[in-house]
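Supplementary Text 2. Reproducibility record for the structural model of the 539-residue chain.

All settings were left at their defaults, and a single model was retained for analysis rather than an ensemble. We include the record here because the model underlies the residue-level annotations in Supplementary Table 4.
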Amino acid sequence: MILFGGSVYTQQDGAVEEAIALQDGRVLAVGSTESIMKLADDGTLFVDLAGKAVYPGFADAHAHLVGIGTAAVQLNLVGTTSYEEVIARTVERSKSMPQGEWLVGRGWDQNDWPPSDSGAHELPTHMALSEAIPDRPVVLVRVDGHAVLANAAAMKAAGVGRETKAPEGGRIGRMTSGELSGVFVDTAEDLISVAMPGTTAAAVREAILAATVSLHEQGITQFHDAGVGLDTLGILEELATANALQLRLHEMLHGSDDALLERYFTNGRVADYQGKGTLAVRSIKLYADGALGSRGAALLEPYSDEHSHNGLIITPEEKMKSVCQSAIEAGFQVCTHAIGDRGVRATLDAYQWAMSATKNENADLRFRVEHAQIVHADDIPRFAELGVIPSMQAQHQTSDMPWAEERVGAQRIRGAYAWRSFLETGSIIPGGSDAPVERLDVVAQFKAAVTRQTREGQPQGGWYPEQNMTRQEALNMLTIWPAQSAFREHDLGRLTPGYRADLVVFDGDLMTVDTDSLQNCHPVMTVFAGEVVWAPKDQ
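Retained model, structure tokens:
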């Protein structure tokens, strides 16, 4: 394949070329249209770019593959503007379901609802939901996945009640009477989930394939899957063996599954399953704390809007140290979810301890902190000093900015989503969506990174714009930095001879259009391993 007559961003020494040639799943050459056309033969497929822009296949450095596919069939509550609307949507879905079947939805966010009489955005209680749907278990997952709302039927099926105690790292919502509110946060979610019916292997497989289509529509060809178990890995291996896996997957093992970790620590990491370049299993996902929206993020000082609460530490210190030490000895990367400044500091401390305790001075660790949303100023330079990568999601900033300062106050907000501060200390920032927490939208990511604004351009001038990225940094965030953070800088993230022939074509140039017009740029073709895997149906 030869693509010619456009702007090919190679991500190699800043070079922008006119044309690119692909052969046998790799980049053959880049250069002027005249020079690349000399490589053509009778079997060449020509694509006239007509001035369009070409980038390396984009990466999502933190999201949930099965979750993206599953979200398409679950009740979607994203964008609901009141609890009444949540209940109405849930009742409507319930009408079309078999009797007794569990109803699961996701996407509510109390911060988008009208405040209570006290002026706060309170978490909901189950009574109105239980009254509307009394005879079917209903579980509605908060948008961040770190809290669920269960109706009375679901709590009864799970065997939880007034006397149930919250597990370590979890929080059970209660009313002033002591009765359960129906909200279960972080590890307390497990009290409900254990009673829910499992997902079939066929459903997981279909979710993976559906998610792949959604990713290709965004030009995403590299994906860092933030937390998987053995069953899902088995399905991914089957797809890879059948050459049906059309993503470059970097899988993170569930760090809470001791048997899973023992299995992989014993058998060793998988840098490239069957040499196909599509599946790697060499990373572990841990949780330091919860999420900011549900007040589970662990803070050094109490929440500004809940003075008696500092958030939740999910993985105890000794457990985190132990897993990190074993990971280093077995050659595995550790990626830890840490959102609050206390969670981030605990993670850095555990990493530093494990690095010192392990006699493997030449290890190429590339440990990561996933999210790193609220970070104390003293801890930002520690990332580069320790070689720890802050894996951050630009859309979280635009989603959280209406209420984040209420949570942490005017001082701590200066260390929130602090991209420029990290970059100036020498860190790289692989970017992701955290989908299905956020929608898959690479243009929204790019615009948020360079303007600190929503797709619609709000707020005027950007939110704490001193933390903006440059456009080149935003492109790095979607290409070379994720490749580096997944040990794939040798074959992903660039369009240069020998690299994988994964690329995306845009109808507008993200690097040159006016920032107010970024949202008008769209992917029009995605190529994976030298083959077109997505283009608009009318193209």
